[in-house]
Design goal:
By secondary structure, the chain is mostly helical. The chain has a domain at 3-18 and 103-279: Hypothetical protein af1432 (Orthogonal Bundle). Helices cover 65% and strands 0% of the residues. It has 14 helices and no strands. Helix 1 (6-16) packs across helix 8 and helix 2 (21-34) crosses helix 5. It starts with 5 loop residues before the first helix and ends with a helix. 40% of the residues are buried.
Length: 281
């Protein structure tokens, strides 16, 4: 199909990617966290509507890391022990975990690879968020959801029975443009808009591939652009070396990143990644 169908595909995103329970709760939790007047009882009321999330929060609160001897028996006890920020992480991680169980055969991307990249982006965004004085919880959530548009495009291709598969002969973003008329950033932004995420989230996801297309690039947009390019070099295990080309990117120039600072950021992110992977076992 040609790019003339771009509007058809964009309009279809909200229809074919249904708002199931977990994404709906993620939106509600995010909005509640931004509200300074929100109480613990209000957060608990939201979480109680999803049994799997409730179970996961209780599991984490009773893990060896948080345990105080007596197990938490309800959400009130769990939240008192682990705090709002950790709950926010559990919700966003659980949402992605549920969404990423589908193989994206059109891309040739396995669900586990998608998951690894998303988690790596989350911890790098958190580490960069500290460096640029950004909201680290917002940075983490943006990182973990940054390439959800790839699942959207895969759904679109299957829904409209488009016979296209990425063979790696052309850049992946270019292939997406050929397939549906837009890249995964645009697709992800359209989905987050349908999920009623704030404009800052939508704009960051939409323009992170090329922030120069945005009139006023947001700090976290520059951070996500940098993160995606960094993962391309060092891998989702954050273990390979990086090269100096990264310092030509807008974030590096604006915040005066150098090799020493970037190494510290990567080490911080890698330590968190290992802790997160251990907690998910």
């Amino acid at each position: 199909m040609e790019n003339a169908n771009k509007k058809l595909f964009l309009d279809a995103i909200a229809k074919i990617t249904r708002l199931n329970t977990s994404p709906a709760i993620l939106v509600k939790v995010e909005i509640a966290m931004w509200n300074e007047m929100c109480t613990m009882d209000e957060i608990i009321a939201i979480l109680r509507t999803d049994a799997s999330l409730t179970s996961e929060i209780l599991r984490v609160s009773n893990s060896s890391y948080y345990s105080i001897g007596t197990p938490a028996k309800d959400l009130n006890g769990a939240l008192s022990r682990i705090g709002f920020a950790k709950v926010r992480r559990i919700v966003s991680t659980s949402v992605l975990s549920g969404l990423s169980k589908r193989e994206m055969s059109n891309y040739g991307i396995k669900a586990q690879n998608y998951w690894n990249i998303s988690i790596a982006a989350a911890v790098l965004m958190e580490a960069l968020g500290k460096h640029i004085n950004g909201d680290i919880e917002e940075a983490y959530t943006i990182g973990i959801l940054h390439c959800v548009g790839r699942m959207v495009i895969s759904d679109l291709i299957n829904h409209f029975k488009i016979d296209m598969f990425w063979d790696e002969c052309i850049p992946i973003n270019e292939w997406e443009e050929c397939a549906v008329g837009f890249n995964y950033g645009v697709a992800g932004a359209q989905l987050l808009k349908a999920w009623n995420f704030p404009d800052t989230f939508v704009e960051t996801i939409h323009y992170h591939i090329d922030p120069t297309q945005c009139q006023k690039p947001l700090p976290l947009m520059l951070a996500l652009h940098f993160t995606v390019n960094l993962i391309t070099q060092i891998g989702s295990d954050l273990a390979r070396p990086f090269d100096a080309t990264l310092f030509n990117l807008p974030l590096a120039k604006h915040y005066h990143l150098n090799s020493e600072v970037l190494t510290e950021i990567i080490n911080d992110a890698r330590a968190h990644l290992l802790t997160l992977q251990e907690s998910l076992k």
